Structures are given as structure tokens and as C-alpha cells.
Amino acid sequence: IPKPIGIVLAGLCLVFAFLTFSVGAGLLSGVAGQLGGAINGAISKVSSQAPATMAPSGVALDTPVLDVAPNQGFTNQKQVQLTGSVPGAAVGKGGYLVRIFSVATDGKKSPVADIPVGLVSRFQSQALNLVEGPNAFVAALVSASGEGTSSSAVVYTLDTTPPQLAISSPANNSKQTSSSVHVTGKTDPNATVTIRNPQAPGGNPSSQVVGGDGRFDLTVSLVAGDNQIVVTATDQAGNPTTKTLTLKGNFGQLGVTLTANPDKIDIT
């Protein structure tokens, strides 16, 4: 190739390479600019959204559910721990609380506990004090956006008074000629009455849940001699009252009489 032509070709190659580099850099810069703009837009969009700890304005919070009180709510314990569950939408989010309220007879609510919502749907309160008689509680979900609707109420009835127990028959220290006897009497409505005779074989107790009138009628086995019958009434809250009934088992005695008839005696 003649030298002049070679110089011209080399110059063209240099120009072509420069143009190629410039176009590539421009494309790369454009792509980078578009990518950066997208990232900045996403960041701006996220930062403009409300935080996850706050429910959207105007959207009602779901309602937690309190567990049903055991034993129909009757208890002789002066404190109780409430349990329940929160709506799934609130699980694992910060800033949500389950607020427990006590409810007076006039419907007035007073907050008694705040329980942070955790990573599971279940919750448990600290020990809450009870007063004698019915104690009603409700729960509501609370966030930075406000307080949700209250749950259905659960009622715990504190009863620390032992039940009354009166034995009508048989009379104490009376004699009984049968191997069993009916013991009747009266106690508090819906209480459970248990009777047993430790002196009887096995000494197994029998029991009866009384009705609204509180009356009971139970049968217990007797043995000859002294019988210490133990009668216990336990009310719905678990308070017991025990009485002992002493009965004398007298089932009669078998006797043998021997007589001699001289005309029948053989002396041989």
C-alpha cells in the first residue's frame, strides 16, 4: 500500500474508533441515567407512603377477639390473665397495641392494660385485678391512626364466699337399720354436692350437681357401728363447705338358743 494511502486509512480508523467510543459512552450514560432515575423515583415513592405502623386514614382497624372465660367465668381467684387473638393484618407490625378495658355497669370503659402486638396472633395480658361480683372486659386494637371497635365482652365473676350447706335428713347421731341411707339437704344453686363414707368398703364418693333450688338427695352405704358421713358442697367458683354426719348402723343381731329335752337324751 502506498504510504500516502496508508496514512489516510489509519486516519479514518482513528476517526471511526473515536466516533464508536463516543456513541457507546452516550448510550451507557443514557442507560445509567434512566436506571438512576428509576431508583430515585422508587425511593421517592416509598418515602412518600405512610409507614407500615399506621393504618391508612379512614380505614377502620379490625377487632381483636378475647377468649371465652373458662368455668362460665366463675372464679375465687382475685386476679385473672386475659388471652385472645389479633387480626392477621396487624401481626408483626410495630406500633399496634391491644388495649384492654374494664367495663362498668353503666357502660363506661377504663383502660387497664396495653399489650404490644407481636409476631404471632395470640396475646396474653398481665394479671388483672378483680372485684367481688361480675367483672366485664373488652379489647380494641390501637395504632397511631386511632382506636378500633371494641370486642365482645368477657365476664369473670369473683366469688370468695363458701356456699351454705344444710342437711335435712337423717338426723345427726341417729340409728339406721338399713345398709344404706338417703341424705337430703340444701345448698347454693348450681353447686356440686359430694358424699362419701370412709368406713364403707371402698369409700367411693358420689356426687350431684344441684339445680336452681339447691336441693340434693344422695345415697350412701353404711356399715355396722359408727359411720362418719362426709358431705361437701362446692360452688361454681370452687369454694367448698364440708359437714360431717354421724350415723349409727344397727342392723340387728343373730342369736342361737340351745334347749335340752330329757326325753330325747340317749345316755348309752
What topology emerges from the helices and strands here?
Blueprint: H1 3-48, E1 65-66, E2 74-75, E3 79-80, E4 83-85, E5 97-103, E6 109-116, E7 122-124, E8 128-129, E9 133-143, E10 146-147, E11 154-158, E12 165-169, E13 174-176, E14 180-187, E15 192-196, E16 206-209, E17 215-221, E18 225-234, E19 240-249
Keywords:
6-stranded mixed beta sheet, 17% helix, alpha+beta, 1 helix, 268 residues
What does the model show?
The model is unreliable at 18-59 (pLDDT under 50). The longest helix has 46 residues, at 3-48. The protein has one helix spanning 3-48; strands spanning 65-66, 74-75, 79-80, 83-85, 97-103, 109-116, 122-124, 128-129, 133-143, 146-147, 154-158, 165-169, 174-176, 180-187, 192-196, 206-209, 215-221, 225-234, 240-249. The protein starts with a helix and ends in a 19-residue tail after the last strand. The strands form five sheets. Strands 2, 5, 6, 9, 10 and 11 form a six-stranded mixed sheet that branches. It is α+β, with helices and mostly antiparallel strands and 268 residues long.
**Alpha plus pi helix count:** 1
- Strand proportion, as a percent range, falls in 35-45%
Rg estimate, integer Å: 44 Å
Distance between the termini: 175 Å
Number of strand elements: 19
Low-confidence stretches: 18-59
Coarse structural class = alpha+beta
- Indicate the multimeric state: single chain
Mean pLDDT, all residues: 81
Largest sheet: 6 strands, mixed
